[in-house]
Design brief:
about 90 residues, Arc Repressor Mutant, subunit A, 4 helices, about 55% helix
């Protein structure tokens, strides 16, 4: 799905537009998810915000939320506690 013609697409980085296209998310949906996940991830102590929490927070398909959550952890936008043996982005 090409999202370049949708509202707010112009504010997304190319990788974010690709993410929206692959996951079939409208840019506005993605930005809402991004804001919610990053805010929650940075508000809570590192490592306590889990994928299941993200799925409850976002009102979109749990698989889409999971992919975005894992990507944000990998990017460092959602802090993950140092010393944890299980890293969610490793899957």
């Amino acid at each position: 799905m090409d999202v370049s013609g949708y509202p707010m697409a112009e504010v997304l980085a190319p990788a974010e537009r690709d993410c929206c296209s692959i996951l079939r998310l409208l840019p506005e949906q993605y930005l809402t998810i991004k804001q919610s996940l990053v805010r929650a991830g940075r508000t809570l102590p590192a490592g306590t915000f889990k994928k299941r929490d993200a799925q409850k927070l976002c009102r979109v398909d749990v698989n889409k939320t999971s992919k975005v959550f894992e990507w944000f952890v990998k990017l460092g936008w959602i802090p993950f506690a140092a010393g944890k043996t299980h890293h969610p982005a490793a899957h």
